[in-house]
Amino acid sequence: MKTIARGKTADYDDFIVTRRINILKAVEGFTGEAYSLLDVGCGNGGSLIKLSGHFGICHGIDVDARNLDQLKKKIESLKLSNVSYSQEDATGEFCPDREFDRIISFEVLEHVKDDYQAARNIYHKLKPSGRVAISVPNRWWIFETHGAYLPVLPWNRVPFFSWLPKKLHDKYAKARIYRKKDILKILISAGFSNIELHYITAPMDVIKWAPLQRFFRKTLFKNDTTSIPFLATSIMVTAAK
What we know:
single chain, eight-stranded mixed β-sheet, 7 helices, globular
């Protein structure tokens, strides 16, 4: 694979953020004010901010200082006293001397240097019996989620590109992409158990014409999860330590 591109953080009002949170809140016992939450690769804090009212202590880490600047401003504007952050790398030693009840990491593993190492780090930062929620891009979505370094073609989100054989896909892709069995292998290797996997239905955020967006969200892309891989942009995984 060529150089792995950094991901573009979601906007605060993107529907994909809402969908992830909806799925997470439906997982029995995942949220709770008695729990501490760590967001690995928090970006500008879209998910962290929305979840701050459902946890006692919330902390986010990200490698990009610009993302954290946005998060800082959001925390200040909303006057959130239970949200903090630090600039750290998911593949390095982060949050020394701290463990968390719950950890989330949404659309991060595909961008890091070593996704296996990042998963192991997340595992070790969980308290005993802690739980994690991770999402990664779905290989079977129609469009390449993060685009590719393609010769000649000016548009890098070519339909069905992610369906190509892995060796050919990875040669040009800007980031990793996963099948259910791929992310399952990573989490089992890290030590996780009680693993559940769901396909996150495409949020249609990329469609900017409101009538068409509403049409899709009320028809094919109505529910937060789907059993049809071709209708899902991401795979959501929940697991326990």
